[in-house]
Write a structure and sequence with these properties.
CATH topology: Phenylalanine Hydroxylase
Largest sheet: 4 strands, mixed
Order of helices and strands: HHHHHEHEHHHEEHHEHEHH
Strand order of the largest sheet: 4-3-6-5
Strand content: 5-15%
Number of helices: 14
Structural class: alpha/beta
CATH class: Mainly Alpha
CATH superfamily: Aromatic amino acid hydroxylase
Helix content: 40-55%
């Protein structure tokens, strides 16, 4: 094995991350000295090929956010540097994690204006293959949106919804029914997050065109263009009852996208999501993807009252 492979922070190939996971560590430091030249080359190539796509397809808030963060196109960013520019704008900060964060813990971090951020980066020889989120997806896809106050407030509000979900199921006396309702609520929340925060599109300033705001699109060279230009993609005005009942698959370009008018509109939808949750309208959403893991269920069931 080469020295570069040993010291690097390549996705699925980083001993530092494997050790952290083995020790049960979720929140970690970013060991910047471990990034290899291969890792920096991956960032460099990803950033360079996305710049034109961003200017063609991304929403104006994202473009302003990229400028405000002062990201170095040549080097993997230090999270401390990102936070130095991000926190004064909206109070958000990127917080390094070793990988997957169980559902409630993830949303609770959003509620506290922290974004769990992966620190590994994909293999430069396989830029379009992403077995799990990486630092390019998180920092160049998600975090520029966190510089916008209205969008940041929406994320916090979504974190509030998770706290509401934990509160509601805590009051269900029957264990089997508690788990059944929670499974449905988490599935509804995951679908909403997917079709907005990850794969959302919005009307442009003129109201006649579309721009991308979802991080899964903003970090994908191929899909950002496909989302806006491909004639086979269905793009519908967002309706909450459609979103929470719409299954999705993660291993191909999305054939269906939902359009919001603005981030104020998106914030209002999160308010509506919480109202529907309290009214029991999320207790029986349509079955199908995504599946809800035991870890996600447990994270909500074990959540302490806010």
């Amino acid at each position: 094995m080469s020295t570069v492979s040993q010291v690097g922070l390549t996705t699925t190939k980083a001993p530092f991350i494997e050790q952290a996971r083995a020790g049960g560590e979720i929140y970690i430091e970013q060991p910047y000295e471990l990034y290899s030249e291969e890792n920096h080359e991956a960032w460099r190539r990803l950033y360079a090929r996305m710049e034109d796509r961003w200017h063609r397809y991304a929403n104006e808030h994202f473009l302003k956010g990229i400028d405000n963060l002062c990201l170095d196109p040549e080097r993997v960013p230090r999270l401390d540097d990102v936070n130095r520019f991000l926190s004064p704008l909206t109070g958000f900060k990127a917080r390094a994690v070793s990988g997957y964060v169980p559902g409630y813990l993830f949303f609770d971090r959003l509620r506290n204006r922290e974004f769990p951020t992966t620190i590994t980066i994909r293999d430069p020889e396989r830029l379009d293959y992403l077995p799990e989120p990486d630092i390019f997806h998180d920092i160049a896809g998600h975090v520029p949106m966190h510089t916008d106050p209205a969008f940041a407030d929406t994320l916090v509000r979504f974190g509030d919804c998770a706290a509401t979900a934990a509160e509601l199921v805590r009051g269900v006396p029957d264990e089997q029914e508690r788990v059944r309702r929670l499974d449905s609520i988490i599935r509804a929340m995951a679908r909403f997050f997917w079709f907005t925060i990850e794969f959302g599109v919005m009307r442009d300033r003129t109201g006649s065109g579309l721009k991308v705001y979802g991080s899964g699109l903003l970090s994908s060279y191929g899909e950002i263009a496909h989302a806006i230009e491909a004639p086979e993609v269905q793009r519908w005005p967002v309706q909450l009852e459609w979103v929470i009942n719409q299954a999705f698959e993660i291993d191909h370009y999305q054939p269906l996208l939902f359009v919001v008018d603005s981030f104020d509109h998106l914030f209002g939808l999160v308010d509506q999501l919480e109202r529907w949750m309290r009214e029991g309208k999320l207790d029986n959403v349509a079955p199908g993807e995504p599946g809800v893991s035991e870890d996600d269920l447990r994270s909500f069931l074990e959540a302490r009252p806010a």
